[in-house]
Write a structure and sequence with these properties.
GO cellular component, one term: plant-type vacuole membrane
Order of helices and strands: HHHHHHHHHHHHH
Number of helices: 13
Organism: Zingiber officinale (Ginger)
Transmembrane segments: 32-55, 67-90, 102-125, 137-156, 191-210, 222-248, 254-279, 291-310
Protein name: Vacuolar cation/proton exchanger
Strand content: under 5%
GO molecular function: calcium:proton antiporter activity
Distance between the termini: 52 Å
Largest sheet: none
Number of strands: 0
Length: 314
């Protein structure tokens, strides 16, 4: 059982990396903002597929921990490595990024964390009128609000990218000539074709991972929480490591779109969407991630939001 789980996790990793490559190629035809959104979307496809399979098997804690692990991996590991690698490669210049996009993502992250905190506070203060039912109802209501807010954010981002999100730094304008030297290696149709094929294969392997995760946990004497928070995000976030490469190419807008944008998408879309899907399946999926996990997420969002503000100000 543990061998099958390990083989599937190992198999998902290169597929997720190739998924990121195909998305990167597609980004050449869409521009940096839409490209970052596409990279964040398909980079999270593995987590979404695993979450749906786990919900179907009523493994709610696995869903919560795997999504939490993906957020922490993107915001701490991927973003930190991106800044570190970009700083080493471009040590003689100051890298810049779009303040409007970074501020919008930071605000959405804080809003989403607040939405996650309410069910946890309701649970641990024991103030709900009907035990479990009040908490579940609040989670579903908050999820619907977060989904609407994320839809409005996407509409604003895609419609206003030529205005509020347009890079205005003179240095960024000068860098356009060097960016044009990069050329796509495959056509747009080929990129879409490979995205579809890789998505299907990841779906198949994700099903095996969910079916074998509990057996692998018992066989390897390893907590399910460790597999969900550490191993699953590492395998699924292989595509998001492209953010490091973009930072080394001095494309911090795409780096933030992949790393921070991916975390924003998980918090504002994937987690609420999982709650709604669980609601439709009749599964009690809620936003109560327990006290320690919620506090960890809140501190992470505060640190990243403060770091982006300090980096831009300096």
């Amino acid at each position: 059982m543990e061998r099958l789980c390990c083989i599937c996790l190992i198999g998902i990793t290169p597929l997720a990396e190739r998924l990121g490559y195909a998305t990167e190629q597609l980004a050449f035809y869409t521009g940096p903002l839409v490209g970052g959104l596409l990279n964040a979307t398909f980079g999270n496809a593995t987590e979404m597929i695993i979450s749906i399979y786990a919900l179907h098997n009523r493994m709610i804690r696995v869903v919560q921990l795997s999504l939490l692990g993906s957020i922490l991996s993107n915001m701490l590991l991927v973003l930190g490595c991106s800044f570190f690698a970009g700083g080493i490669v471009h040590c003689n210049k100051a890298q810049t990024f779009n303040k409007a996009s970074a501020a919008m993502n930071s605000g959405l992250l804080l809003m989403a964390v607040m939405g996650l905190m309410f069910p946890a506070v309701l649970h641990f203060t024991h103030s709900e009128l009907h035990y479990i039912r009040s908490e579940l109802a609040l989670s579903r209501f908050s999820s619907c609000i977060m989904l609407v807010a994320y839809a409005c954010y996407l509409f604003f981002q895609l419609k206003g990218q030529n205005n509020a999100y347009k890079p205005i730094d003179e240095e960024e304008v000068q860098n356009k000539d060097s960016d044009e030297e990069d050329a796509p290696e495959i056509t747009q149709l080929e990129a879409i074709f490979w995205l579809a094929i890789l998505g299907i294969w990841i779906s198949v392997l994700s099903g095996y991972v969910v079916d074998t995760i509990e057996g692998a946990s018992e066989s390897m004497n390893m907590p399910v929480a460790f597999i969900s928070v550490i191993l699953l995000p590492i395998a699924g976030n292989a595509a998001d490591t492209s953010a490091i490469m973009f930072a080394m190419k001095d494309k911090l807008d795409i780096t933030l779109g992949v790393a921070v944008g991916s975390s924003t998408q998980i918090l504002m879309f994937m987690i609420p969407f999982s709650v709604v899907v669980g609601w439709m399946m009749g599964k009690p999926m809620d936003l109560n991630f327990q006290l320690f996990e919620t506090a960890t997420l809140f501190m992470t969002v505060l640190v990243v939001a403060s770091l982006l503000q300090v980096c831009y100000s300096s």
